[in-house]
Please model this.
Amino acid sequence: MKNDFQLPRITVRIIEIFCAERWQDEVIGDLEEQYSENRRSKKQWLAKLILVWETLRFIRPHIFKRPQKLNTTIMTFNHIKISYRNLVRNKIYAFINVLGLSVGIASVILIGIYINFETSYDKFFEDSERIYRVALHRIYPTRTKDFGTSSINISTVLKREYPQVEEATRLHRLYFQNEIPIEIEENEKTYIETKFLFADSLFFDVFSYKFIHGDPGTALDNSESIVITRETAIKYFGTDDVLNKTVRSQGEPLQITGVIENIPDNSHIHFDVLGSIASLGFLQNAISTDNWTSPWIYTYIKMKKGADPSALEAQFDDMVVTYGNASISRDIGADWQNNGHAFKYYLQPLQSIHLYSQLDVEVEPNSNISYIYVLTAIALIILIISSINFINLSIARSTERAKEVGIRKVMGSYRLNLINQFLVESIFICLIASILAIGILYFFIPRFNLLLGTYLDFSIFTNPFIILAVVAFIFLVGILAGLYPAFSISALEPSRVLKGSFKTSSGGIWLRNVLITFQFLISIVMISGSIIAEQQMNYLQNKNLGFDKDNLLVVKQSFNLNENYQAFLNELDAIPSIRATGNASILPGQFHGSNVFAVNDPEIPDIRVNACNVDDDFIDAIGFEIVQGRKFEEQFNDSLSIIVNEAAVRAMGVENAIGYKYHAGNNSGTETPQFTIVGVVKDYNFYSLHSEVSPMVIFNISPGNVASNTIVRINSSNTSEVISQIREKWESLTDEEFSYSFLDQDLQRQYEADQNTASMFDIFTYIAIIMSCTGLFGLATYIVNQRSKEMSIRKVLGASLPHIIAVFSKEFMILIGLAFIIGVPIAVYALNQWLANFAYHVNIGVLAFLLAGVLTTFLVLITVSYQAIRIAKVDPVKMLRSE
Amino acid sequence: METISTQEELILLAVGALHPDAYAYGIQKEIRQQTNKGISLGTIHTILYRLENEGLLKSHLGGSSNKRGGRSKRLFSLTSKGYRVAEELQQVRQSMWSKISPSELFFKA
Model:
């Protein structure tokens, strides 16, 4: 039926664009009828004008298009329903997909929270972006050293002479004494404080700590003032209202002039008690003598708004010469600059200290930005593995889904609709996985914190920004993981699919193989990585340190016994299970102070040495080996004798160091004693195995003096009984608190960060392996199902079970081999990087890689044979009957 | 009482009047004849669908003609609810109209 007056095409197009499909026909019909009648009854131009007007009046998409939106919503719900049915129909597939993804997402969110925490350090201080620490790159004639500390006199000069510096303050940590007793007279208790720092009166002008009681402006004005945290106040007095109360430390009264809120975990400075540096005599002495050589103090400055820190840094060299020359010349000679000495000061932004600063003297051990990189990589790897599982399973299942796609296409579905459907499906699965992931996190965050010593908090999920980020992340993962299946499956031709001639495309298999190889590669790298990390951890624990760290009890604060100390030792000797005792100022693992060591021979260069003081019995008790000369002995007067270690002898560059004399002290005007080297001790690791043994000088404790640590060598059995016996003796001789530790545990604490890294690596290795295996399991299921007919025919023709397993495994074995070849160099490279952190480390052996390869192969074999056996057990008749 | 706009009422009535052959273009012609006012097809379609959505009208696709280029038309008819609404409106108007006395309105002032 043809009309004489058809509508112009443009009209039809406009209606098609602006009018919902289901109404187009009748609308165009009406327009055409009207138009043809008008053409008959009216002039042509008038009819056309009317048509234009009428057509334009249809442009109201808010009405005519609306129902189509409804349609999308309905289809989306339909897609979700279909996804749900697909999941329920195939439970193994659903389990692997959802669980795998949820573990992946949980890992990523967890690592995300961790990174968020690690990068938030010190940002809570007001104006934290304007606060800097003055650090020192110290150049000596033969070496360099990096200090987080600086000269005590820098801050006053900076504040006074440099207008771009708004405020400057000083912070000090006592290194020679980690434990400071605080006595509370009210309740007659003594607490041992390990977080006792010292600052000057300007500290709170730079750092905006929240005061609950007291005035930040004047809190540290007096030398006997202390500021404590709320937690500490409650520990001491049971209340935070403790302003102006007095406590005693080592006989001196201290007045509480401020109580602050507890310090957030994400700060590089933590103290329970903050005293005044004016109470420390040696610091006051350093101020009054205008000392510029001893970096004893952390200097923090707040720059004025808009001031350029690099411009200030550029003036530092001149500053050292202008203000420090007198002091430096006095201490290390007037021509220090020509002799190769230099003091290079620079600024560290406060916010960067936690992640970027690994100097020799830090307030607290900092983290490292490389951990953040490694973790980010691990998070991505786990996410990639779970996405690969998702993609692989989708490709494997495309045979099954192909019929559905074919039918949908025959029924008039566009490709876009199908892509839409698969994306909705993958987002839906992601959503379920995420809900599960958040459940997993809720359960695991406290354990994670416990295991790794972190301070992560689940409550971060109440932050709307985080929620938004997580939702965006879910969609991102859903779309990325669903993209390939969506495009590949939706591209299938219905005619071929429905005829049943469909097989997974070769492109799909190729991609699948690449992805599987990648997974194997990750497994091999991570397994070998954790094996070597484990070996290194064992090595750290079991390496001979040059002394016997086991069964060694340390009684702390022994000086509290004073004149009763000898009596205490005598009592201990009477206990049969105690084999030996000794007294030392500093034990291996603790911070050793250092000083310049120059002997009475101009040929021998000055060296930097660490030092400690021990009594006559100590060397035997701890088990040091004397390689030359003698140890301290009672029959000699050894108060002016010293023992050096082999490293010191090497640094001096002499064959025989015995007999050289050392002139101590560089304070002019005071009588300085002269020491003689009487023995050489075999190198022992007094610091962690991260660093080489450096030169050490051991001084003798003169009779009548008592140093902090008493070591007690005990028999391994009934430890707790021995401890209670020692406690009994202690308490019979003094009222002070008895505190002790085990040396091996103290030493182990040096490797906490390494242990954490290793544990974290272990955890994620397990996750990665489990996820790879589950993915493989799902994949094997489908491959075996696909080839079930082939296997049945093989069986009928006489193939044995091992043969069938071999047929299935062969393909995977090739992929493992490939992964092994690529993975080993990657692992070797990465592990070498990590092991370079340790001066003493294991060598990377072949064993770890072999083990990783064998383990991966073994897991693949188990997975594949399980499926192969399942199919091989089925009666071939059943398989082949239906065609 | 359901209230609808004058335009809607007009179209509702036209559907009733043209039964069983009420479709958009026919309605447009009827209204032009009765009121001498033109309503665009777009408006009529919009109102028809809206009334149908509200349950006052029902529709089915009906016969086509050469003039329409072979396209079928959508034929509308009143539902019982639609009839009731039209009837109610009529009654309300009547009862209110009966209270208006023109003599008082125009001559008393």
About this structure: Residues 552-744 of chain A form one domain. The mean pLDDT of chain A is 83. The interface with chain B takes residues 1-3, 6-7, 23, 25-34, 36-37, 53-54, 57-60, 63-64 of chain A (CB under 8 Å).
